Amino acid sequence: MPSPNLEVPHVAAAQNQKEVTINDATDALDLALTATAVIDCSAGGTIAVTAADLQRHVRLVLGGAPGAGFTLELADVPRLLVVRNDADAVAVITRAGGGDATTVDPGDQRTLYLSGGGVQPTAREIYDFGAVSMATPGPGEVIGKVVIPRDVRLPADLAGAAGHVDVPPDAAWSVDVTVDGLTVGTINVSTTGLVTFTTTSPDPVTIDAGSVVRFVASSFAAPAEASVAGLAVTLRGAVI
Question: What DSSP string runs through 11-45?
Answer without folding.
Answer: PPTT-S-HHHHHHHHHHHHHHHHH-EEEEE-TT-S
